[in-house]
């Protein structure tokens, strides 16, 4: 069996590539969030916490998502460095803005909850993957997942999945059972995308 070794000198992403990746990743995530919100669904992680807070208080999702991420930046700075933290803060801000902008340009009407949840899960998962590949995260639990993978070599998707499960269980009292089931399917696909595409030692950019 042929073993392909990584190059000895790994060429890092250029600044413009990182900037473009943050925009693309945040756009994909915010689009998935918009679809979930359209069906009154929920996601995992701090996005899920933001959804539940929004449903309870009727505050804007973007503002809630940005604010509840703030405490996690301390861990990011202490354990993962300033570059990671700045990129993550930028990504979270872009997701917050994007989730507020989509309704101004696109109106969705008759959506199949299951289809919307599946599409949302894949979109958010791919968005998070783009951010991970460029040294950033979606904030919150994503920071914990990135830290666990970096420090303990535990796959980020598995860590994210465990935390997502806690949030989904907490949603039982606020979300319609069918919508919650659809949301769980989307969350499983989200974490599957990350788990099979983002492993330690698999990416060298």
Report what the structure shows.
The protein is mostly helical. It has one domain. Helix content is 72%, strand content 0%. The chain is built from nine helices and no strands. The longest helix is centred in the first third of the chain and has 24 residues, at 15-38. The two termini are 25 Å apart. The relative contact order is 0.19.
List the topology elements.
Layout lengths: L14 H24 L6 H13 L3 H9 L2 H9 L1 H24 L7 H21 L7 H12 L3 H15 L6 H21 L8
Helix pairs in contact: 1-5, 1-6, 2-3, 2-8, 3-5, 4-5, 4-7, 6-9, 7-8, 8-9
InterPro entries: UPF0750_membrane, YitT
Organism: Demequina capsici
Subcellular location: Cell membrane
Terminal-residue CA separation = 25 Å
Q: Give the percentage of residues in beta strands.
A: under 5%
Give the SSE order as H and E letters: HHHHHHHHH
**What's the total helix number?**
9
Mean pLDDT across every amino acid position = 83
DSSP E strands, number: 0
Give the overall silhouette.
Answer: globular
Q: How many separate domains?
A: 1
Class derived from helix and strand content:
mainly alpha
Largest sheet: none
Summarize this, please?
This protein is an all-alpha fold and 205 residues long. The chain has helices spanning 15-38, 45-57, 61-69, 72-80, 82-105, 113-133, 141-152, 156-170, 177-197.
């Amino acid at each position: 069996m042929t073993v392909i070794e990584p190059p000895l000198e790994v060429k890092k992403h250029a600044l413009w590539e990182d900037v473009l990746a943050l925009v693309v990743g945040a756009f994909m995530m915010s689009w998935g969030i918009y679809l979930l919100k359209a069906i009154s669904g929920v996601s995992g992680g701090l996005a899920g916490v933001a959804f539940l807070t929004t449903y309870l208080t009727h505050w804007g999702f973007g503002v809630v998502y940005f604010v509840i991420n703030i405490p996690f930046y301390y861990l990011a700075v202490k354990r993962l460095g300033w570059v990671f933290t700045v990129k993550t803060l930028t990504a979270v801000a872009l997701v917050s803005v994007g989730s507020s902008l989509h309704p101004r340009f696109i109106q969705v009407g008759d959506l199949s909850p299951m289809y919307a949840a599946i599409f949302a899960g894949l979109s958010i998962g791919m968005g998070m993957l783009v951010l991970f590949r460029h040294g950033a995260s979606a904030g919150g639990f994503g920071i914990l997942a990135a830290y666990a993978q970096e420090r303990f070599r535990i796959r980020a998707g598995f860590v994210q999945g465990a935390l997502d499960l806690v949030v989904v269980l907490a949603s039982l009292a606020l979300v319609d059972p069918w919508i919650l089931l659809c949301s769980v399917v989307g969350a499983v696909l989200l974490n599957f995308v990350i788990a099979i595409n983002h492993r330690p030692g698999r990416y060298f950019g």
